[in-house]
Structures are given as structure tokens and as C-alpha cells.
Amino acid sequence: xxxxxxxxxxxxxxxxxxxxxxxxxxxxxxxxxxxxxxxxxxxxxxxxxxxxxxxxxxxxxxxxxxxxxxxxxxxxxxxxxxxxxxxxxxxxxxxxxxxxxxxxxxxxxxxxxxxxxxxxxxxxxxxxxxxxxxxxxxxxxxxxxxxxxxxxxxxxxxxxxxxxxxxxxxxxxxxxxxxxxxxxxxxxxxxxxxxxxxxxxxxxxxxxxxxxxxxxxxxxxxxxxxxxxxxxxxxxxxxxxxxxxxxxxxxxxxxxxxxxxxxxxxxxxxxxxxxxxxxxxxxxxxxxxxxxxxxxxxxxxxxxxxxxxxxxxxxxxxxxxxxxxxxxxxxxxxxxxxxxxxxxxxxxxxxxxxxxxxxxxxxxxxxxxxxxxxxxxxxxxxxxxxxxxxxxxxxxxxxxxxxxxxxxxxxxxxxxxxxxxxxxxxxxx
Length: 429
Hints:
Strand order of the largest sheet: 1-3-8-7-6-9-10-2
Distance between the termini: 49 Å
Strand content: 35-45%
Shape: globular
Number of helices: 1
Largest sheet: 8 strands, mixed
Radius of gyration: 22 Å
Oligomer: single chain
């Protein structure tokens, strides 16, 4: 909303400020401990005067801080319903206060209940009926104290391999170039400097990149479509669709009986949907069909035989995701906490995901490998951390492994702008 006369903007805010100070309401008011991280909260009842600010002749979202007990909440967006936030930190069972603070005041709620996680049933890791339902996705990360020079070997003690040997994450023959230097991807500067959730089509023709609809990386996301052009994208001016898609994963249309075309998995409303793309640039032919409920962050092997996805702070693997049987197993033994977004390599042997090592740590990228698709991922560890490495003291999110093995991800290492980076040849399937 833009006003040509600053006085009109001030009058509008003064009118808002005369309203009731507001009573914070939180929905839901409780969550199980094992489903807490990733839970989406709606903080309602705060007048617009406290969620908007004047910026020249414009109204923009105010700077807000939300907390759950001692932990910060991630503010996702602010709209007519209220402030949408997400839990990013694990807490012990108990009663905690949710608080929202702005320049105009602070609001608290009665106690938010964190319920003890249900006891483990000791069942086998393979679950043909699907894993227990959980809450939504989470942005998370981890820390790594790897040396600045040389190559760290993960999962094999303190041995130091030769320079440029790559990162051996444990599985024989699976070598990850975790010490590769990230390169800022040119040509993708989106409004408000918030590039999120990159994905590349399997033929390397198109880059899909989300941009929130309002400032400060808030609001619904719209995926912009770029021509990849060998790593120098150009904006087509087209959008993937008009829905609030989160993570997306393009795949070869032949898996849907569309040779030469495209398919797309996407996260929509806390569920994974599947659709066909058509046109140039490609867009959904129609609204995608639901593939799996209460699941997020889909990632698919090149042949479509395996899908990795998240439920809360846990990752699962679905065999034959487009078939009838679709057996499921949880990916256990992963390092870090608050595990969230994940991407799997074309051959299904390398997993890159987001996790945090401790309370309130910055999000970083972790890697794990396995020797075959029948095995679980092992020797998970954070990728090396330094100013010019994949992980930094800033926030690293949105990993995506391309069909050729490049790693795309976003980072706030430059003045807190969320920018897109690429590590060529991170892993060659």
C-alpha cells in the first residue's frame, strides 16, 4: 500500500494506534515434544499498528521478535490473520510462555504446553504403513570446526587425506567435494534480496527460485523461473504458479508418461503434491494432485525410485513413490538436531540436509552417504565451515543437488542478504 502524502500514512497509523493494545492468542497451544520443532504457530490478536512501520511513503512489516520460553521463534510472514511463526528449537516437556515484541510493545500468552514424546515402540525401521504424522518443515543447521586448509575426512577419526581428495563421508567409492569453494550465482537478484529454495530441472534448462511476496523474506512464496544458461541464469519473467509453494523438486516427465517434458514435486500447505509442467518456460498444466499428506521438503532420485521427505524434525525415505506399495523407513543416526530440508543425489547415495548442533545455533548444511540404496545413510557430519566454505557463521539453507552433482544452496553471509550459491562438482554420481 503506497501513499503519495506522508501525512496520510501517519494518520492511518495513528488511527491504528488508538485501537486496543491487543491480547496475543496462539494456535495451537500445545505440541508433542517429538513434533515440536517445525510446528507452525499463529500469533493473533495484535493490532496492525504494531505489525506495520513507516518507510518513507510506504507501510512495511515492522521488526518483530517472537519467543517460546527461552527459545526464539522463526517469523514466517505477517498477514491479516496475524503473525505466522515456526518453532525451530527443541524444548523439554513443560509450560512455556509465547511472547511477541515490537517497537510498540510486548504481548504474552498463558503457558504453551510441550508434551512428553510418546515412548518408542521398538519396532523395526521398515514401516510399510508409513511413519507417524508430524508437524511441518523446519529451517535448521549446524556448526563445523573443520580446519581451514586441506580436506577433512568424515567418519574416519582424525586422519587427514591429501589435498583436493574430496570429502570421504564413509561409504566406499562415494567421495564428496565438501571443501569446494561456493560461487555466487549471477543474474538471480530478486526483489528484497531474498533468494530461497533453489531447484534445477533434470536437463539443466530451468532454475526455479522462490521469492517471498513481501519484505524481510516474509509472505507467501512465488517461484520465479530462470533459464539456467550453463550457470548464468536469465529471468524468464514467468512464475511457476499462483499457489504458496514451498520446496519444489523437478523431475523427468518420462516418469509420468511425458517424454521430453517435466514433472514437479512441491510442498503445498504442509503436504507433498505432484504435477506435470508444460510450455516454455514450463508451468503447471493444472493444480497438482496430492501425493502424500503431512509431509514436506520432497527430493527424488533421478530414476524416481526413491523419495526423501521430512515430517517435523525427522527424515524418511519412500521406495517407489509413484507406485502402489511405497514402503517407508525413517533415516536414523543423522547428526545434528532440528533436522529439516534435505536433498538426495541422482543415484540416491548422498544426502545433504539442514540441522543445528545445539540450542539457538545458526543453520548449516550436513552430509551423509551410503554404499547402496538398500543401506541407511551413515557417517553424517556438518560440511566444513570457514569464510569461503559452504558453511559460515551465517545461515545456510535450501540445499539442492542437481542431476550432474552440483550443490545449490542459499546463504546470508553477505550483509544478511539471502543469496544463491553453487558448488560445481560437489558429488559426481
